[in-house]
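Support case: user asked for a sample of complex input and structure output to validate their parser. Sending the pair below.
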Amino acid sequence: MQVYTVAQITGYLRDVLESDGVLADIWISGEVSNLSGSSAGHLYFTLKDEASQMRCVLFNRKRLSVEMENGIAVVAHGRISLYEVSGAVQLYVDMIQPTGVGILHMEFERLKAKLAEEGLFEPARKRHLPAFPERIGIVTSPGGAVLHDITNIISRRYPLVELVLAPTTVQGESAVPGIINALNALNDRGDIDIIIIARGGGSIEDLWAFNDEKVARAIYSSKAPVISGVGHDTDFTIADFVADKRAPTPSAAAELAVPHRDEIETRLQNYIATMAASLSNSIQRHRQHADDLSATISTQVKNGISVNIEKLRGQELKLYSLSPLATLERGYALVQSHANGEVISNISQVERGDMIKVQVSDGQFNSRVTGSKKGLQS
Amino acid sequence: MKKELSFEQALKRLEAITETLQKGGMNLEEMLALFEEGAALAKICHERLHKAELKLSEVQTMFEKDEESEESA
């Protein structure tokens, strides 16, 4: 017969208790009694009901969201283990709430505090969304209005993308593994620029998968940046806190994911106007060609700028009117040296007998210089 | 114009051309060539914005297995 030491048995008991999944993550309700505090800030108390009691210790008073006193009814969360010095089984409390607060709400607050402490919500780790995504993954239910709304909005704003649906249930028991699986399926492709994780509105029970720790960690470790769009204007979910960007609805998430093509149109117009103005300025500075050319371009540029963007929308850009080609159509010509292609802008560049190339609106012809005279033709 | 430019690349190139033209300091031929390239890029971007149609595809997930338990969310 083997004889054990006390330490061997308490150590063994402790191992048994700590390897149990239920005891590692447990909520217990009861009444507070024998409350005492230590100088180090720890709190010791007993939770009891009619039949029994359990020792509790709380090491971190910051987690207290309730004023502790003997006799109050609370719900405590923590893990159960054995304190070998006294041989007592006790609950190591990490969260305590007055009873009456819903258990889902308590679990939400507990998980939020835990993940915040781990740094999952840090603004510094949130990733930037690419300005012009090419492929957007959508984690949502394939049947609902959510996908329809997202598709509509992106199609209207910026139809240059490919939407890749990763279908999943978003409530009920299969929602948590489903959402994680869908996120992984998108990330495994390696070509997704943004992931939108979305669901329509609902009660806290309906949205529960978005408050799940495993889902939060899957969002945190996603390769592609994640936008959460869980339809609940007022309340946040854990998924909202951990996502790189949070939108209050699926539609708002779609709007965050892509630019608006009207804004890009405005940019295009500005580029064209700037380019044409630069060209015109440069021509003026160098006094090349006739002054008429720059005047023409300037006028057209001014006209181009003053055109209302609204009017331009949906129309073809009238680029040709800004192009020097239009000037040629009005009878001006571009003269280049036949030998080296240099643009001829003053008479010192040619001598009698030189071959020149003359560019007009519909083509070019060669010509020979028979003479030259200083001064503008009257 | 290279067809394989992405929309973002085309827009970036257009932006760069605009900046180069603004700085100036080159001859007329070079400016004309840049202007024409920029104008063509602007046209391409404009056309892509207005002619593109949203593409939809799907990745395989475990969803198919429990399709009958789908809820309308």
